[in-house]
């Protein structure tokens, strides 16, 4: 039986995808020859264009409850999400397709507002909407609205997420804001986000990634936006993909105190909360400091180095959090189920 | 008429001078015969001569305490008329397993030499002999020969060489003793400042005592790691230590110079005295004396003090010059991290003002063992120094060798070969990567030492356990098969293996949590176990566990869950019980909890969470700064309490009635007592009913909550005596034994 946790984006999702798709497909059909596809877990796929460049393609369905939240709405999210996925593979976003499914009875104004925000993101980012689909489902068959978007871009060089020994892990901003806001709304503390002046970080990262890739592309060994599963998910994926260990300094992690305290009340580590406008990068150590300065210069004042990737012979794939006290805590990959461990 | 005996002994530990002891004893009595190693810890002795009877007597009753004998069989035989007594070479190359010697506390003879012996050994901090001293902590590989241990760095002086080679010079204690040394050639003690810079002093040990007397905190290298020493009688010093260790309330152990000093701190009965002075020399939890000279900050809110006696000459020398004759001796580690085994690690802790270091390298970290009394019986809370890695003989044999990964908190792993389960020393909590590495390293070491091949792996069902993850890593590396055991099934089997039950039995498995087959957090289970299969006959009622692990960290969450389950969402009650104030997030967190309870994603039948809920609701404890804190404090609160008669079908009803009585002003002591005793009775009733229905005779108890005095007393008031483990901890430190025993039942 399919459980909610299968769609959590964590360990359970990886397991079901493996079973349903990856095991069944022959290697040759997991990608277009010379490109990137299902064979490697990353933000988007790449197809070689023959001139040395790549066509970057990504698809994502967005459902969020509630559809409007401080700092944005599902329209902004659907546009930004796919734009960011194209960017994180090293692409420059050029076009988008969308598919909207609305629930019968949804107020026209709601749909109007969502589409307006969706389009306004495309406009500011200069991304063309080249196709789409619109459907309505009978009441009760889905929750208000689902938007699926396909993002398309072009890349000179594809950033395949494979960190190398010594790479510094750079985070562009505070993490977990989006996830914390959505959780607050879902838990029913409606007044909380305003009270805490907390809003979702949802935004396209074009202004960050395009200049960064242009200038430092060859030094970026991995790039990801920590959406579902948060920073913990990205780092665990990378530790595994690079066949090493990532050590992160707890002290250096950018988490807003209000996010930390709210997450604490729910028993959630903020490192598992989604961000929708943050980039995580694995940068060659020779330029890491420089890159941080450059990123800050682009307006991302909170950018910083949070840790390091190390090759390892044993215990590959572990993400270790160096605590303030000097311990090394294992940061586990996110899961959808709550499984108790503490005796 | 001369007599002759053939003696078959099982369970001889290597490296405690057993064979030389037998030979010298026989020679002294003018007997002939032989002693032969049969392998697998089994030895055969043949003696003949007039005084054979005396030989037998000495062997049975007068042998050094270090020589541990699991089982002995003696038959009188006809004399064969042999001449002289020989240590015979084993007939065929003994390939079978031998027992790795554990670390042994300094013996009386060695201590006498240190206090009043000749120049070479007087005040010699490392004095030891065939019957005492470090073993496992300094051994790099088997066999236990000097060059395979840390002693190899210290070439023998002429005098030691002579003692080693000639029993007439060295006597039974030094002849062939692998760790032989003296002041001329042994390890050196050094005093360092907090950063590790050496300080030049005449006698570093005396100086360290002086510094401790002045209120300084001094790290002292012991056998398996560092202790932090500090005056235990001075509130300011203890408070300073708590602050530096970031350990607000977790009790510290006290090392007392001798039994007399221990007796001033706590009540020491005969069994306790035997434990305290045993070669294992564990920390023993004993009832505090009201007029104890120790600061109340040493173990705040508890009725027991953890006390142990020195087990090295160095510790004796140090304590004898400490003005109180006792001091805090807590492990030198970062909270939740493994104990330090070198000075660099200690310097990084930033806890100690000075470091008393020495040059005998620690190969295996070995923590102090901890023993408490449960319903009058000694129970291991932590199995480390002195006990590990002595094997445990299981009632059934394994076909293939196996490696067990235990659980995740306060855990140990183990390997199994035939009918021997060899558990690692206490490893600790595996959310620490260093602890996980230790588990990995110690298991690899056992695999290598015992030359395991083609082994299978066994671990807990819970995939989020780091031990489970490590098990999967091994599976890939060694291409080995994995078996998984449900946590409480393993607890049940661990006790059965420990006490020697091979037939079907009923188990009461009670602890914090273990993942159940249904995804819930189990922990209050009555199981019918038929080897590799089990039936979950009854369990405590399911209660929401709001926030998952957070409910364990914040006991008031569990109190709310129980409260709402019994009384409904009654905010007036929440206020009267001050439960919101007992959550870090206050009322808004309580509201979140209420919502989580309504659409709970996780349910629990855990005894630990029930005790947490009671502790928080009665205002006994609502923080958990160390494992089991609320339950431990609730147990302490119950001391001197009496049973309030009430009817309760399950623990939820019990909780509700306790709260009603509490609000009417009942004594917290009695409520705490009743909560635990009655819970034991509820579980006991289910257990006996099951045993009767299934027609089995054995009822065993396992799991971390099985050390609770009142639960066990309540259970046994209904059921009669139930079996508790005595060689392994009933908690997760014994899980690996259950996992191995599962495989034995499975016929793997
Ligand atoms: Fe357990
Ligand atoms: Mg990427
Ligand atoms: Zn001795
Ligand atoms: Zn010597």
UniProtKB/TrEMBL annotation, chain A:
<dbReference type="InterPro" id="IPR036921">
    <property type="entry name" value="PurM-like_N_sf"/>
</dbReference>
<feature type="domain" description="PurM-like N-terminal">
    <location>
        <begin position="42"/>
        <end position="154"/>
    </location>
</feature>
<dbReference type="InterPro" id="IPR036676">
    <property type="entry name" value="PurM-like_C_sf"/>
</dbReference>
<feature type="domain" description="PurM-like C-terminal">
    <location>
        <begin position="165"/>
        <end position="316"/>
    </location>
</feature>
<dbReference type="InterPro" id="IPR011854">
    <property type="entry name" value="HypE"/>
</dbReference>
<dbReference type="Pfam" id="PF00586">
    <property type="entry name" value="AIRS"/>
</dbReference>
<dbReference type="InterPro" id="IPR016188">
    <property type="entry name" value="PurM-like_N"/>
</dbReference>
<dbReference type="Pfam" id="PF02769">
    <property type="entry name" value="AIRS_C"/>
</dbReference>
<comment type="similarity">
    <text>Belongs to the HypE family.</text>
</comment>
<dbReference type="InterPro" id="IPR010918">
    <property type="entry name" value="PurM-like_C_dom"/>
</dbReference>
<protein>
    <submittedName>
        <fullName>Hydrogenase expression/formation protein HypE</fullName>
    </submittedName>
</protein>
<dbReference type="GO" id="GO:0051604">
    <property type="term" value="P:protein maturation"/>
</dbReference>
TrEMBL record, chain B:
<dbReference type="Pfam" id="PF22521">
    <property type="entry name" value="HypF_C_2"/>
</dbReference>
<dbReference type="InterPro" id="IPR043129">
    <property type="entry name" value="ATPase_NBD"/>
</dbReference>
<dbReference type="InterPro" id="IPR041440">
    <property type="entry name" value="HypF_C"/>
</dbReference>
<comment type="similarity">
    <text>Belongs to the carbamoyltransferase HypF family.</text>
</comment>
<dbReference type="InterPro" id="IPR006070">
    <property type="entry name" value="Sua5-like_dom"/>
</dbReference>
<keyword id="KW-0479">Metal-binding</keyword>
<dbReference type="InterPro" id="IPR001792">
    <property type="entry name" value="Acylphosphatase-like_dom"/>
</dbReference>
<dbReference type="Pfam" id="PF07503">
    <property type="entry name" value="zf-HYPF"/>
</dbReference>
<dbReference type="Pfam" id="PF01300">
    <property type="entry name" value="Sua5_yciO_yrdC"/>
</dbReference>
<keyword id="KW-0862">Zinc</keyword>
<keyword id="KW-0378">Hydrolase</keyword>
<dbReference type="InterPro" id="IPR051060">
    <property type="entry name" value="Carbamoyltrans_HypF-like"/>
</dbReference>
<feature type="domain" description="YrdC-like">
    <location>
        <begin position="202"/>
        <end position="386"/>
    </location>
</feature>
<protein>
    <recommendedName>
        <fullName>Carbamoyltransferase</fullName>
        <ecNumber>6.2.-.-</ecNumber>
    </recommendedName>
</protein>
<dbReference type="InterPro" id="IPR017968">
    <property type="entry name" value="Acylphosphatase_CS"/>
</dbReference>
<feature type="domain" description="Acylphosphatase-like">
    <location>
        <begin position="4"/>
        <end position="89"/>
    </location>
</feature>
<dbReference type="GO" id="GO:0051604">
    <property type="term" value="P:protein maturation"/>
</dbReference>
<dbReference type="Pfam" id="PF17788">
    <property type="entry name" value="HypF_C"/>
</dbReference>
<dbReference type="GO" id="GO:0016874">
    <property type="term" value="F:ligase activity"/>
</dbReference>
<feature type="active site">
    <location>
        <position position="19"/>
    </location>
</feature>
<dbReference type="GO" id="GO:0016743">
    <property type="term" value="F:carboxyl- or carbamoyltransferase activity"/>
</dbReference>
<dbReference type="InterPro" id="IPR017945">
    <property type="entry name" value="DHBP_synth_RibB-like_a/b_dom"/>
</dbReference>
């Amino acid at each position: 039986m399919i459980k909610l946790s299968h769609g959590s984006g964590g360990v359970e999702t990886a397991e079901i995808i493996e079973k349903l798709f990856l095991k069944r497909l022959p290697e040759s059909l997991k990608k277009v020859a010379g490109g990137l596809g299902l064979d490697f877990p990353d933000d988007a796929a790449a197809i070689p264009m023959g001139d040395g460049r790549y066509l970057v393609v990504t698809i994502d369905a967005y459902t969020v409850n509630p559809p409007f939240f401080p700092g944005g709405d599902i329209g902004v999210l659907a546009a930004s999400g796919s734009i960011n996925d194209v960017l994180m593979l090293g692409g420059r976003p050029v076009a988008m397709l969308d598919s909207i499914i609305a629930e019968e009875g949804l107020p026209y104004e709601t749909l109007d507002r969502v589409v307006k925000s969706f389009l306004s993101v495309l406009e500011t980012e200069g991304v063309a909407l080249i196709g789409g689909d619109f459907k309505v489902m009978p009441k009760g068959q889905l929750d208000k609205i689902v938007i699926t978007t396909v993002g398309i871009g072009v890349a000179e060089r594809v950033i395949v997420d494979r960190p190398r020994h010594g790479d510094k892990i750079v985070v562009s901003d505070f993490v977990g804001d989006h996830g914390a806001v959505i959780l607050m709304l879902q838990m029913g503390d409606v007044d909380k986000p305003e009270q805490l002046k907390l809003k979702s970080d949802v935004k396209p990262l074009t202004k960050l990634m395009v200049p960064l890739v242009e200038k430092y592309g060859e030094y970026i060994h991995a790039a990801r936006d920590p959406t579902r599963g948060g920073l913990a998910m990205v780092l665990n994926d990378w530790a595994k993909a690079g066949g090493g260990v990532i050590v992160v300094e707890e002290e250096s992690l950018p988490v807003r105190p209000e996010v930390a305290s709210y997450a604490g009340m729910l028993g959630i580590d903020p490192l598992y909360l989604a961000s929708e406008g943050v980039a995580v990068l694995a940068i060659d150590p020779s330029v890491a400091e420089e890159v941080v300065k450059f990123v800050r210069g682009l307006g991302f004042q909170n950018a910083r180095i949070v840790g390091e990737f190390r090759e390892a012979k044993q215990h590959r794939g572990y993400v270790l959090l160096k605590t303030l006290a000097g311990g090394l805590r294992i940061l586990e990959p996110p899961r959808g189920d709550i499984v108790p461990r503490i005796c | 008429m001369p007599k002759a005996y053939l003696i078959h002994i099982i369970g001889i530990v290597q490296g405690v001078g057993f064979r030389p002891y037998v030979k010298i004893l026989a020679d002294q009595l003018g007997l002939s015969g032989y002693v032969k190693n049969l392998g697998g810890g089994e030895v055969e002795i043949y003696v003949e001569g007039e005084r054979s009877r005396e030989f037998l007597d000495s062997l049975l009753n007068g042998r050094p305490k270090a020589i541990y004998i699991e089982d002995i069989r003696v038959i009188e035989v006809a004399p064969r008329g042999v001449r002289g007594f020989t240590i015979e070479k084993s007939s065929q190359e003994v390939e079978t397993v031998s027992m790795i010697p554990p670390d042994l506390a300094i013996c009386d003879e060695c201590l006498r030499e240190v206090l009043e012996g000749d120049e070479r050994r007087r005040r010699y901090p490392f004095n030891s002999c065939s019957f005492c001293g470090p073993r496992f902590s300094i051994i790099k590989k088997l066999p236990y020969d000097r060059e395979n241990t840390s002693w190899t760095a210290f070439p023998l002086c002429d005098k030691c060489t002579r003692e080693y080679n000639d029993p007439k010079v060295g006597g039974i204690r030094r002849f062939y003793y692998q760790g032989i040394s003296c002041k001329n050639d042994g390890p050196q003690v050094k005093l360092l400042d907090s950063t590790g810079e050496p300080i030049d002093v005449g006698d570093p040990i005396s100086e360290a005592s002086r510094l401790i007397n002045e209120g300084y905190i001094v790290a002292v290298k012991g056998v398996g790691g560092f202790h932090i020493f500090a005056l235990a009688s001075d509130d300011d010093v203890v408070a300073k230590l708590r602050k530096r260790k970031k350990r607000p309330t977790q009790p510290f152990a006290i090392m007392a110079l001798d039994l007399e000093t221990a007796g001033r701190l706590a009540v020491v009965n005969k069994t306790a005295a035997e434990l305290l002075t045993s070669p294992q020399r564990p920390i023993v939890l004993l009832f505090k004396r009201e007029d104890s000279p120790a600061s109340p900050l040493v173990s705040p809110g508890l009725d027991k003090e953890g006390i142990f006696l020195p087990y090295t000459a160095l510790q004796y020398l140090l304590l004898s010059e400490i003005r109180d004759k006792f001091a805090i001796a807590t492990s030198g580690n970062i909270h939740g991290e493994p104990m330090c085994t070198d000075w660099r690690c200690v310097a990084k802790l930033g806890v100690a003002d000075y470091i008393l270091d020495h040059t005998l390298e620690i190969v295996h970290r070995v923590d102090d063992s901890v023993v408490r009394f449960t319903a009058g019986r000694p129970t291991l809370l932590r199995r480390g120094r002195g006990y590990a890695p002595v094997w445990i003989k299981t009632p059934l044999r394994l076909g293939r060798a196996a490696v067990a990964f235990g659980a995740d908190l306060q855990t140990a792993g183990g390997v199994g070969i035939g009918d021997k389960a060899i558990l690692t020393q206490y490893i600790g909590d595996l959310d620490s990567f260093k602890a996980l590495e230790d588990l990995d390293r110690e298991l690899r070491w056992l695999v290598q030492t015992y030359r395991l091949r083609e082994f299978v792996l066994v671990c807990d069902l819970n995939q989020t356990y780091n031990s489970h993850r490590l098990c999967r890593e091994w599976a890939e590396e060694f291409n080995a098969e994995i078996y998984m055991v449900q946590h409480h099934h393993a607890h049940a089997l661990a006790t059965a293996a420990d006490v020697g039950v091979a037939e079907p039995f009923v188990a009461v498995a009670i602890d914090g949590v273990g993942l159940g087959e249904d995804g819930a957090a189990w922990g209050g289970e009555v199981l019918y176990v038929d080897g590799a299969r089990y039936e979950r006959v009854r369990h405590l009622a399911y209660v929401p566990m709001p926030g998952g692990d957070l409910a364990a960290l914040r006991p008031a969450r569990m109190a709310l869950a129980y409260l709402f389950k019994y009384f409904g969402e009654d905010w007036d009650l929440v206020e009267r019980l001050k439960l919101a104030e007992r959550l870090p997030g206050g009322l808004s967190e309580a509201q979140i909890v209420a919502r989580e309870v309504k659409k709970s994603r996780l349910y629990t039948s855990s005894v630990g969470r029930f005790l947490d809920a009671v502790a928080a609701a009665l205002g006994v404890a609502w923080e958990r700064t160390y494992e089991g804190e609320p339950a431990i404090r609730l147990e302490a609160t119950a001391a001197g309490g009496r049973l309030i008669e009430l009817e309760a079908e399950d623990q939820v009803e019990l909780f509700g009635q306790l709260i009603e009585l509490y609000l009417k002003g009942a004594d917290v002591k009695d409520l705490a007592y009743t909560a635990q005793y009655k819970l034991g009775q509820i579980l006991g009733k289910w257990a006996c009913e099951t045993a009767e229905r299934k027609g089995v005779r054995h009822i065993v108890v396992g799991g971390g909550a099985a050390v609770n005095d009142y639960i066990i007393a309540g259970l046994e008031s209904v059921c009669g005596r139930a079996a508790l483990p005595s060689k392994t901890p009933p908690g997760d430190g014994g899980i690996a034994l259950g996992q191995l025993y599962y495989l034995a039942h499975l016929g793997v």
